[in-house]
Amino acid sequence: MNKREMLLQRQGWADALIELGTKDPRVVVLDADLAKSTLTCQFRDKFPKRFFDMGIAEQNMVNTAGGLSLTGLIPFVTTYGVFVSGRAWEQIRTSVCYGKLNVKFGGAHGGISVGPDGATHQALEEISIMRVLPEMTVLVPADYHETKKAVLASASIDGPVYIRFGRKKTPVVTAKDTPFEVGKAIIMKQGTDLTIIACGTMVASALDTAERLEKEGVSAEVINLHTIKPIDRDAIVSSVRKTGCLVTAEEHQLAGGMGSAVLEVLAEEMPVPVERVGIRDTFGESGTPQELMEKYGITSKEIFEKAHSALSRKKIDIRSLS
Length: 322
Hints:
Rossmann fold; five-stranded mixed sheet
């Protein structure tokens, strides 16, 4: 497999906030007593009068951000994804989304790879509970560069945006000049036999799987679905129409996550054999990121196995099952 540069997604978050703050005095940042972990401390040090540490009071933080947005400011709210999406969901729903207020949410430490922090700090459900909210845009960038681009792009969206990013260093799979457009998936690798759709940290694993499959003569198309909502229906349907089968991969519960969003599209547009890689209805635990990814079956190994399963199902003549 390719050896890739490893960078922090949360540094992309921090770098983008500083860039936005330099260009636009309306940008303010609110944090819930985790500025060192989320790296918003870097924004605080540069723009101390535009940074608000709200303490461990996520509900108040979201309501405050909503109020600030009504004055014309652009608030960026950040804490661990599990806390902002869980503790403050009702405030996000009613105080922000209901009025389509211009508040951006940074869900740090997303996924199971938070590691030793354990189940209480591992955000495995927030894609589901954020994408169900009307007016909410949901972004799950793959690496440092894409996280930075997602934050920059969110500032130009009139309304709430949720951006999920991880804690640990992740493989860099995009470049500084790779195009990024909200709502437009990226075809990372062209293929004709199988489609692999991934988001976040799983994009690198999907690319590794495609490389392994290629050695077996299987041509896999890899799609980086960085925008979960609004979803790129055209990219999904166009790819599976060509390949005839699909594997989805995400660092999230299978119920309601990125894979579910893709299946909703296919059920309406182009049903094909689908296999999914993700967390299977369980909480995480403490461990190193790699140990947890392996234990819960969300590595390139599982994507490879699911790929073969999808390919075998594609070969079945449906008429023979009737």
